Amino acid sequence: MHKNNFCISFGVWIAILPFLGIPGTWKSTLIFISGIFLILISLGPIILKKLQTKAEKEI
Known about the structure:
Blueprint: H1 3-16, H2 24-58
Helix pairs in contact: 1-2
């Protein structure tokens, strides 16, 4: 699955989550974890690229 498709699917999950009838604490926790996961998925390649360039400069 392409990263864009995954991000869109996960965004839909976050949009639907409040309407599923999940209790408040669980809902807040799931939304928070989903948001953090979405941020990590979208920023992951950028962070890895920066770490690789740092490692190459040290060598």
